[in-house]
Amino acid sequence: MRHLRLPSGGVLPVLGQGTWGMGERDSDRAAEAAALRHGLDLGIGLIDTAEMYGSGGAEEVVGEAIDGRRDEVFLVSKVFPHNAGRQGAVEACERSLRRLGTDHLDLYLLHWRGGTPLAETLEAFEELRDNGKIRHFGVSNFDSDDMRELWGEEGGSDCAVNQVLYNLTRRGIEFDLLPRCRERELPVMAYSPIEQGRLLGDPVLGRVAERHGVTPAQIAISWVLSGEGLCAIPKAATRGHVEQNHAVLEIRLSEDDLAELDAQFPAPDRATPLAIL
Q: Where would one find coiled-coil regions in this protein (predicted)?
């Protein structure tokens, strides 16, 4: 597993396991937990979840998956904006910890920008960190202006990660947000690296995948990981998909591959609103 250096100290695996959509049906929970455990068996220790996913159900699935294996996991969860107040974020984090069956998170994110002042959320994050409930904090779905404001707040420079939508069809962050994060050596965590499967029928992506003897999904994830300061958290709810995701670490896209993908999925030439799913 390759890693990125966090500005607040420590390292972040470049490939993780997403859990968006898990924990929504009781009949699927055992298989979902088994898939996450298989990822741990393969060394994919980064697991991303949120109190929003399945109304806490995804955190419960993760808790089952990591039971007895907490030391193998870089565990990420997120707080709703409406819970991100001074006391609300502390209480929300404690609820997440109970569902996850652990006493701390490695990374706690503000899920998206809401009406709570950033200074108040930062105070809550600092309290959680001082009390050992979280090791690092960060944000999700923050655009360039949001990050500029965050960095201007006391304690905002301790932000460890910005998690955003990024894939071959959603390259808007390359115009301004991604360069600014790179300047500050802030890792960017890409969610939905295969656009929930919608880009997988593209013929150019298929051609590149055929050259490497892999799937289009693996090429799409590999493309994300080929960028500086980026990690990816694709969801995989089956053992087979977990194994395919893990195999992405062995793929090396050539300059010709990247040029072909760039021609099919052009980089932005102007600022655009941050894309969100």
A: none
